[in-house]
Automatic annotation (TrEMBL):
Keyword set includes Transmembrane: yes
InterPro entries: Diminuto-like (IPR040165), FAD-bd_PCMH (IPR016166), FAD-bd_PCMH-like_sf (IPR036318), FAD-bd_PCMH_sub2 (IPR016169), Oxid_FAD_bind_N (IPR006094)
Keywords assigned by UniProt, alphabetized: Membrane, Oxidoreductase, Transmembrane, Transmembrane helix
Organism: Gossypium trilobum
FAD-binding PCMH-type domain span: 48-231
Membrane topology, record value: Single-pass membrane protein
Known EC number: 1.3.1.72
Lineage: Eukaryota, Viridiplantae, Streptophyta, Embryophyta, Tracheophyta
Protein localization: Membrane
Molecular-function annotations in GO: Delta24-sterol reductase activity; FAD binding
Superkingdom of this protein's organism: Eukaryota
PANTHER family for the chain: 24-DEHYDROCHOLESTEROL REDUCTASE, DELTA(24)-STEROL REDUCTASE
Main enzyme class: oxidoreductase
UniProt protein name: Delta(24)-sterol reductase
TM helices/strands, residue ranges: 21-42
């Protein structure tokens, strides 16, 4: 794409909803922030209480809770009760997709008790955790031990279950892959009440490979064993500014972590962490991090930046200063680095609280940040929710690394959203074809970042109000998402299902591969018990009749018609 000129759009007439959104910060300050702080504090007390229990006690409680889930499933009458789903309220989920499937008749199973860290096994380098354990909780336990999950998603509230059943990524994913690639075993309650442990090399290996991206539609995840890695106390972070057109920025991003000689597995050439932020069509900052000891960080002349303090500038704005002062290096405490985007929710905080980044707000009320996403969703109402779907974008585009420049140009032309987040991740060649998979024959091209066993992809994170909306122009959010999805399909790219989707069923299965997923659903009795992943992700209300008809279609090879 050579023409980056955005289309001319007419002005949009504003209504009452625009007024409510513009001044929603008043409600956020006086209601959402205080209640968020109270909620976080109560959750913290619960986590501390859990950590005070012995691993033996936690395991005993886990076993008891699993039996409750099994009992509840066996009490279901398939002829009278609806399809099975969790009892969690729709607004609690961090994702922006409407949980409309719970508006149809359904059979609820309560998983709210599954929020304990069951074991930190230092010999096996495994953390065994329950699905509602979140990133903030687990880093609070592991980092003081100089241990960490191999992939730690940035926001504190993101849970293990959501990152496995959906998708999860972090700046270390160019080494370890997506969050689900770091899991070594799943404990699953199947539709018939059986409790199984699935690994890549036992009798449930097909289930093991099918769980990621399945959105909990194959069974209930009740525990996971996740890879741990040794870490040091600090992250040595280098901020490198790049100026040029979008293709130049994409190349600078690639060069920051992917050696041009193809030596992608050489730790001397490949950093531990990578992240990029594109601030405009001509400016970006790319950050590379390496773990560092406290002795190194505290050497004379080294700068330590505690980015986690409430009064500190928001991280994305701090990184942007590299565009003025040039490349610089600093040391950040490891746990604070992991959660660097939590306080400002990347840059979404600027829309929620337009003055939230100002020094006076950070000093006086910054300690209340961030507002809890679930409370924001619970209090926004139908009209504001629809407004955000139409006038606001939260999408991730998982694209092959060599197509990042094209993706940036597409986003600029169609949405004009900045900043844009860039985070690389490996997509591994697996023994079976899963819902997301590398391009066939990618290893023959020897492209930058690729290895014989994995193709390098990048998450192009598009989060903010589009340029036309900020200028008061007409913008069709649904149409923009439809165009985005078609671009992804044509470019062998993927859309995480937490986001609002406009895909019809045929296009959904053009984007994702259905074979293993459908095989596992039939083999383990999920059909007729759990809703299919498409209907769980689909935008709009789901009636029971619609779901039943869709379930019947799953039995009739409906997805063999997918066009590639």
């Amino acid at each position: 794409m050579s023409d980056l000129q955005a289309p001319l759009r007419p002005k949009r007439k504003k209504g009452l909803v625009d007024f409510l959104v513009q001044f929603r910060w008043i409600f956020v300050i006086f209601f959402v922030l205080p209640f968020s702080a109270l909620y976080y504090f109560l959750i913290y007390l619960g986590d501390v209480r859990s950590e005070m229990k012995s691993y033996k006690q936690r395991q005993k409680e886990h076993d008891e809770n699993v039996l409750k889930v099994v009992k509840r499933l066996k009490q279901r009458n398939p002829k009278k009760d609806g399809l099975v789903c969790t009892a969690r309220k729709p607004w609690i989920a961090v994702g922006m997709r409407n949980v409309d499937y719970k508006r149809a008749r359904h059979y609820e199973v309560d998983l709210s008790a599954f929020r304990n860290i069951l074991e930190i096994d230092k010999q096996r380098m495994i953390a065994r955790v329950e699905p509602l354990v979140n990133m903030g909780q687990i880093t609070r336990v592991t980092v003081p031990m100089n241990l960490s999950l191999a992939v730690v998603a940035e926001l504190d509230d993101l849970t293990v279950g959501g990152l496995i059943n959906g998708y999860g990524i972090e700046g270390s994913s160019h080494i370890y892959g997506l969050f689900s690639d770091t899991v070594v075993a799943y404990e699953i309650v199947l539709a018939d009440g059986r409790v199984v442990r699935a690994t890549k090399d036992n009798e449930y290996s097909d289930l093991f490979y099918a769980i990621p991206w399945s959105q909990g539609t194959l069974g209930f995840l009740v525990a996971a064993e996740i890879k741990l890695i040794p870490v040091k106390e600090y992250m040595r972070l280098t901020y490198t500014p790049v100026v040029g057109n979008l293709q130049d920025l994409a190349q600078g991003y690639m060069d920051s972590f992917a050696p041009r000689d193809g030596d992608q597995d050489n730790p001397e050439k490949v950093p531990d962490f990578v992240e990029g932020m594109v601030y405009s069509p001509t400016e970006g900052v790319f950050m590379t991090g390496r773990y560092a000891s406290k002795e190194e960080a505290k050497k004379k002349g080294n700068k330590i930046n505690n980015v986690g303090w409430w009064f500190k500038p928001w991280f994305y704005q701090h990184a942007q200063t590299a565009l003025k002062k040039g490349e610089f290096v600093e040391y950040i405490p490891t746990r604070e680095y992991y959660h660097r985007h939590t306080r400002c929710l990347y840059w979404e905080g600027k829309l929620i609280l337009p003055f939230g980044d100002q020094w006076w707000f950070r000093f006086l009320l910054g300690w209340l940040m961030p507002p809890k996403v679930s409370l924001l969703k619970a209090t926004q109402g139908e009209s504001i929710r629809n407004y955000y779907h139409d006038m606001h974008v939260i999408q991730d585009m998982l694209v092959p690394l060599y197509k990042v420049g094209d993706a940036l140009e597409w986003v600029h032309h169609e949405m004009e959203i900045y900043p844009i987040w860039l985070c690389p991740h490996r997509l591994f060649k697996l023994p079976v074809k899963t819902m997301v998979y590398p391009e066939p024959g990618f290893e023959q091209h020897h492209r930058q970042g690729d290895t014989p066993y994995a193709q390098m992809f990048t998450d192009v994170g598009v989060y903010y109000a589009p340029g036309p909306v900020l200028r008061g122009e007409v913008f069709d959010g649904a149409e923009a998402v439809r165009k985005l999805e078609q671009w992804l399909i044509k470019n062998h790219s993927f859309q995480p299902q937490y986001a609002v989707s406009e895909l019809n069923e045929k296009d959904f299965w053009r984007m994702f591969d259905a074979d293993l997923y459908e095989h596992v659903r039939r083999k383990y009795g999920a059909v007729g018990t759990f809703m299919s992943v498409y209907y769980k992700s689909k935008k709009g209300r789901k009636t029971e009749k619609e779901v039943q008809e869709a379930e019947q279609a799953h039995l009739e090879t409906a997805y063999a018609e997918a066009d590639y």
